[in-house]
Amino acid sequence: MAHYQDGQLEITRTVVGPLDNNVFVARCRHTGKAVLIDAADEGPTLVEMCRRLGVEAVLETHGHRDHTRAVPAVREAGLPVWVTAEDAPLLPGYDHLLADGQVIEVGRLRLHAMHTPGHTPGSVCFTVEGSPVLFSGDTLFPGGPGATRGPGASFPTILRSIEQRLFVLPDETVVLPGHGRDTTIGAERPHLEEWAARGW
Known about the structure:
This protein has one domain: Metallo-beta-lactamase, Chain A (4-Layer Sandwich), CATH 3.60.15. It is globular and about 45 Å long. It starts with a strand and ends with a helix. A hairpin with a 2-residue loop joins strand 8 and strand 9. A seven-stranded mixed sheet has the order 1-2-3-4-5-6-7. The protein is of the alpha/beta class. It contains five helices and 15 strands.
């Protein structure tokens, strides 16, 4: 059963690994072509899912280990992996570099890469042209930004990314994070000052 769908897009979600990572497949309903968001863990499971759903490439939201453990398995299965230059050194391997504003065509779908540093220097989110959907990785969750305690992380930077890049999206935009449940931009935007004040 689809996690989300509209006239052009079907999204399937599975949860993998000890940290309950969300892995999404965004599939063009017109052509059947698809892309995987984050090869997080449980490589054999994700490879089977990719074959079943017509996945042709993998887009990594960032380079943390819990989001990339299945990268070797998907690459061995012939799927190219995309990641930003800033986070590429964190991966066990990759094939292409993502740039801010880059458009990835998946059948008739057009996914837009949006550089949102803060959780990692190379964190990136993806919007889908014509669909109210945001793949937010670990940049934005229900109730606040992703963790900024690790190397290369910055709380002021992630807040700026959220305010300037994500909170300009429409209220009805569905936020699909790297862990946990969905939310919307409209539900989260009013809490920005509260997050800034608490410092996490």
